[in-house]
Amino acid sequence: MKKHSQDLDLVFEAIRSLRRNGARVHSITNTVVQDFTANTLLACGASPSMTINPVEIADFTESCDALHINLGTLDAVRMDAIKASHKVAIERQLPVVLDPVKVHKSPYRLEFAKSVIDAGVNILKVNSAENSVLEEFYGKVECRVLTGAVDKIETSDEAISIENGDPLMSKIVGTGCVLGALLAALSVHANSSKIAAIAALGWFSIAGEIAAEKASGPGSFKPLFLDTLHSLSVDQIRDRLLIK
Predict the structure, then answer these.
(1) pLDDT confidence of residue 5
(2) How far apart, in whole angstroms, are the C-alpha atoms of residue 28 and residue 231?
(3) Can you say whether the dihedral through the CA atoms of 206, 244, 18, 54 is positive or negative?
(4) pLDDT in tens, 99-124
(5) What is the layout of strands, in order, in the sheet containing 66-70?
(6) pTM for the whole thing?
C-alpha cells in the first residue's frame, strides 16, 4: 500500500470529484445490462446517455464527457452507432473505454474491436480469454484492465493488482460490463487512465465485498451492491483496498 500512496491520493480525489461534479457518460452497451449500467452510473454520481440511433448519436456524444463501448450484443445498428459516436469522441479527445466482450468467439467481432482500438482507445477492459486474442494491441492503449479472481491494471511501465471482490459478483449478469461504464466516468476526473482504473476497481470490488456480506444470494445482492456503490466512503475504500 505504501508504494502506491501518491497514486491513492489521486484515486480518492478522482472519486470525490466524480461525486461532486458528475460526468455524463455515453454508454453503448449490450441489451442485457442497459438498466444495470445506467443505475450504476447514477449510484456513483455520473449521468447515463444511452441512445444507439446512428442518426442522432453524434449529437448526444457531443454533450458527453466520456464514451463507453461494450460489444456484448453487437449488431449492425450498434456498429454504426459505435462508429459515429467514436468519431466524435476522438475529435473531442474524450476518454474512451472499450469492453470487447467475447471477441475470442467471433472473428467478425474481433476485427471490429481491432478497428476501434486502431482509431483510439484509452482503457481496454478484458478477461483472460479476450486478452489472449488482443495482446498485440496492448501497446496501442494507455491502460489495460484484466479482470479475474485478481484484477490487474497494466500500463506500458507498470503492473498493479487489486485483490478485492467477492465470488457473488459473478453470479449476476453484467458486473463486468457495468465496470466499464464506471471506468469511463472516473476517466473524466482522474489525471491518467491508470488512476481511473485503480479508482474504479477499488470502489467497485469493495462495494461487492460489502454487499456480499449482507446478501443471502444473487437476488438480494444486486440492489445491495447498488446501494453500497452509492454510500461507500473514501475512508472505507482506503481501509479495505488490497493493492499490490
Answers:
(1) 76
(2) 26
(3) negative
(4) 999 999 999 999 999 999 999 999 99
(5) 47-49, 24-28, 66-70, 96-99, 123-126, 143-146, 151-154, 159-162
(6) 0.96
CB 195 within 8 A of CB 173: no
How far the first Cα of the chain sits from its last, in Å, is 7
**Radius of gyration in angstroms for the set of CA atoms belonging to the chain, rounded to a whole number:** 17
Q: What is the mean pLDDT of the chain?
A: 96
The 3-class secondary structure across the chain, one letter per residue, is CHHHHHHHHHHHHHHHHHHHHCCEEEEECCCCCHHHHHHHHHHCCCEEECCCCCCCHHHHHHCCCEEEEECCCCCHHHHHHHHHHHHHHHHCCCCEEEECCCHHHCHHHHHHHHHHHHHCCCEEEECHHHHHCCHHHHHHCCEEEECCCCEEEECCCCEEEECCCCHHHHHCCCHHHHHHHHHHHHHCCCCCHHHHHHHHHHHHHHHHHHHHHHCCCHHHHHHHHHHHHHHCCHHHHHHHCCEC
Cβ proximity of 207 and 161 under 8 Å: no
pLDDT tens digits along 182-231: 999 999 999 999 999 999 999 999 999 999 999 999 999 999 999 999 99
Give whole-number Cα distances, 180 to 9, 21, 120, 123, 204, in Å. Answer: 22, 20, 16, 9, 11
Quote the cell numbers at residue 168: 457473488
Domains of the chain are: 2-240 (3.40.1190.20)
Residue type, 51: T
- Of all residues in the chain, the percent with pLDDT exceeding 70 is 99
What is the pLDDT averaged over residues 64-79? 97
